[in-house]
Amino acid sequence: MIDTLIDIIGKEAVLFESFLELLEKQQRMLVENNLDGLNQVTAEQHERLTESQMLNSRRMEVVAQIKKDKQIEGNLNITRLLTLIDQQQADRLEQLQDVILSLSDKITETRNQNAILLNRSREYISKTMDMLSKINAPKSPTYGQKGESEHQHAALSIDRRI
User: Fold this and answer.
1) Is residue 83 helix, strand or coil?
2) Partners of 12 in beta bridges
3) How many angstroms separate the CA atoms of 28 and 145, rounded?
4) Are 90 and 82 spatial neighbours (Cβ–Cβ below 8 Å)?
5) Model confidence over 102-148: pLDDT tens digits?
6) What are the tens digits of pLDDT across the range 62-88?
7) Is 154 in contact with 138 (CB distance < 8 Å)?
8) Where are the domains of the chain?
9) Where are the alpha helices (DSSP H) in the chain?
10) Sign of the CA dihedral running 89, 90, 96, 99
11) What's the sign of the alpha-carbon dihedral 93, 96, 98, 104?
12) Which residues pair with 151 in a beta bridge?
């Protein structure tokens, strides 16, 4: 069962690596403003998420079986598991743990960078739409702070759906 668990965790590490690559590709698509590429990457990310959920379920089943076989009460984490397995398995598990933690940090960093890019894109779109709404708009007089007449741009309605 331990070998099965190590195999599943190894597959999860490979999946994390591919997810990181997809996030980096997503970042390039955002910078290049490539909507088709972005949609493709999003679909691939969804597939990886589904795979991750399946592996997670399988890992939980194997952990439950190990707990039952070894009569372990409470949580079974990697540190606790390392005391129950042989040295070769322990080395492999520690190596996978290091890889997954490293990938997790990189995934978090890349996701944060992508979020910043998305927010900037939204800001640019909002500013552009605001500027477009003021082009050739008739000016209507309004009263200023001291009761003086001022001209204000009227809003222009634009259908933002494409």
Assistant:
1) coil
2) none
3) 48
4) yes
5) 999 999 999 999 889 888 888 887 888 877 777 765 555 555 566 55
6) 988 888 887 878 787 777 777 778 888
7) yes
8) 2-150
9) 2-32, 35-70, 78-82, 87-134
10) negative
11) negative
12) 141
Query: Is 1.20.1250.20 the CATH classification of the domain at 2-150?
Result: no
**Mode of pairing for the β-strands spanning 139-143 and 149-153:** antiparallel
- List of residues 6+ apart from 158 with CB closer than 8 A: 129, 132, 133
Calculate ∠ Cα 5-70-89, nearest 5°: 40
> What pLDDT, on the 0 to 100 scale, is given for residue 56?
92
Pick from 55, 47, 50, 49: nearest CA to 12? 55
Q: Side-chain half-sphere of 53: how many Cα atoms within 13 Å?
A: 6
Give the predicted TM-score (pTM) of the model. 0.70
Could you read off the pLDDT of 37-59 as tens digits, one per residue? 989 999 999 999 999 999 999 99
